[in-house]
């Protein structure tokens, strides 16, 4: 069980690392235009005064400021920074849990810090706590905790659904 839990920790940790890269890239797509538009806004406000009427400068400033506000509000609404922090935290926690399990399993039975059953329960409790704050992947990562009977039930219910839908299409 602990070997499977250890491998599950690595799999979810890798998923979180990929999510951090994805959210960081997406967040950058918001932040770079905000920086460029803010600089352009400053230039328009001060640099164009000798060449353009003030009323046009004010309109350009308003549009640029509105665009920056929309971009930053969208980034805040999508909570990219929160998602990045959550994924980084989960990845680190899962790596720590993996290392703890690996260390304990590498030791001789006499050298281990606690009873196997207690250690297993403690590690599973930690895993559960980490997964409660974890972002659930849209791509299904196969859980090792599903028993063979549950797999059979899922396969049978899927088969039953397919048979029912094919009967309806025939009628």
Task: Summarize this structure as a short list of keywords or feature phrases.
disordered C terminus, mainly alpha, 171 residues
Element layout with pairings:
Blueprint: H1 2-47, H2 54-78, H3 80-106, H4 116-132, H5 148-170
The number of helical runs is 5
For the secondary structure, the number of strands is 0
Structural class: mainly alpha
Low-confidence stretches: 152-157, 162-171
Main beta sheet:
none
- Helix content estimate: over 70%
Mean pLDDT: 81
Q: Approximately how much beta-strand content do the residues carry?
A: under 5%
Helix and strand run: HHHHH
Give the N-terminus to C-terminus distance in angstroms: 48 Å
Shape: rod-shaped
Question: How large is the radius of gyration?
Answer: 27 Å
Structure description:
The chain is mostly helical and 171 residues long. Helix content is 81%, strand content 0%. The protein contains five helices and no strands. It has helices spanning 2-47, 54-78, 80-106, 116-132, 148-170. The chain is rod-shaped. Residues 152-157 and 162-171 have low confidence and may be disordered.
Structure described in brief:
The chain has helices spanning 2-47, 54-78, 80-106, 116-132, 148-170. With 171 residues, it is mainly α. Residues 152-157 and 162-171 have low confidence and may be disordered.
């Amino acid at each position: 069980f602990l070997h499977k839990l250890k491998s599950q920790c690595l799999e979810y940790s890798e998923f979180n690392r990929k999510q951090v890269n994805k959210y960081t890239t997406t967040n950058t797509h918001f932040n770079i235009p905000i920086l460029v538009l803010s600089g352009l806004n400053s230039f328009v406000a001060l640099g164009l005064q000798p060449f353009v009427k003030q009323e046009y400068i004010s309109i350009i400033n308003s549009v640029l400021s509105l665009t920056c506000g929309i971009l930053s509000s969208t980034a805040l609404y999508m909570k990219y920074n929160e998602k990045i922090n959550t994924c980084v935290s989960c990845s680190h926690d899962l790596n720590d849990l993996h290392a703890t399990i690996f260390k304990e399993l590498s030791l001789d039975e006499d050298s281990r810090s606690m009873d196997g059953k207690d250690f297993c329960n403690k590690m599973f409790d930690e895993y559960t706590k980490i997964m409660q704050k974890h972002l659930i992947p849209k791509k299904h990562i196969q859980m090792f905790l599903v028993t063979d009977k549950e797999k059979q039930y899922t396969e049978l219910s899927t088969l039953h659904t397919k048979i029912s839908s094919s009967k309806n299409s025939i009628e």
